[in-house]
Amino acid sequence: MRLTFAALFALLLIAGEACAGLPVTTITVDGAKGPNPFKVEVAGDSASQEKGLMYRKTLAPNAGMLFDFHTTVMTSFWMKNTVLPLDIIFVRSDGTISSIAANAVPFSEAAIPSSEPIRAVLEINAGRARQLGIEPGDKVHAAIFKNGR
Q1: Number of domains within the chain
Q2: pLDDT by residue (tens digit) across 65-79?
Q3: How far is CA 113 from the centre of its chain?
Q4: Does 65 reside within a domain?
Q5: Does residue 100 sit within a domain?
Q6: I want to staple 142 with a disulfide (CB 3.0 to 4.6 A). Which of 23, 27, 90, 134 is the partner?
Q7: pLDDT tens digits, residue range 44-68?
Q8: 120 strand-pairing partners
Q9: Strands 118-125 and 86-91
Q10: To 5 degrees, how large is the angle CA 42–CA 46–CA 49?
């Protein structure tokens, strides 16, 4: 019994570390194949934004991280210390997708810039945007966007 409890406690610690105590919400991205719900962690401060999805070894198919900058900004991302390949989706303040950096290369320090001022960035598993028919101009529905639903 003691060993089982210790193993369960260790698993809970690991799971808690993966979530890093960030708020979690569900957003929807409208793509060519219909609405796509994602359960996302919200990185809304500089500390959580700096860490992002670094060191994560797994990400559920409909999970991700939403970086909320609270205002429109020009920004640039990189994949330093990021194990997973990702699609990086740049989102305007009205919730429309500005651009998508598909299949960002793990561990790369190359800059991945927004092409215009954006409000947020959504990171999901690499290839998911293409698989779901998500493209620039599509709508992301989240509370942070005007008329976010």
Answers
A1: 1
A2: 999 999 999 999 999
A3: 15
A4: yes
A5: yes
A6: 27
A7: 888 888 899 999 999 999 999 999 9
A8: 68, 91
A9: antiparallel
A10: 45
Q: What is the pLDDT of residue 14?
A: 39
Question: Residues of 106-119 as b/e, b for ≥16 C-beta within 10 angstroms?
Answer: eeeeeebebeeebb
pLDDT surpassing 70 at residue 31: yes
**Alpha carbon distances (Å) from 105 to 12, 79, 85, 87:** 30, 7, 5, 9
Contact yes or no for 19/65 (Cβ under 8 A): no
Q: Kindly state whether residue 16 falls inside one of the protein's structural domains.
A: no
User: How many angstroms separate the CA atoms of 136 and 139, rounded?
Assistant: 9
Assign 55 to helix, strand or coil: coil
> Is position 108 within any domain?
yes
Radius of gyration over every alpha carbon of the chain, rounded to an integer in angstroms: 16
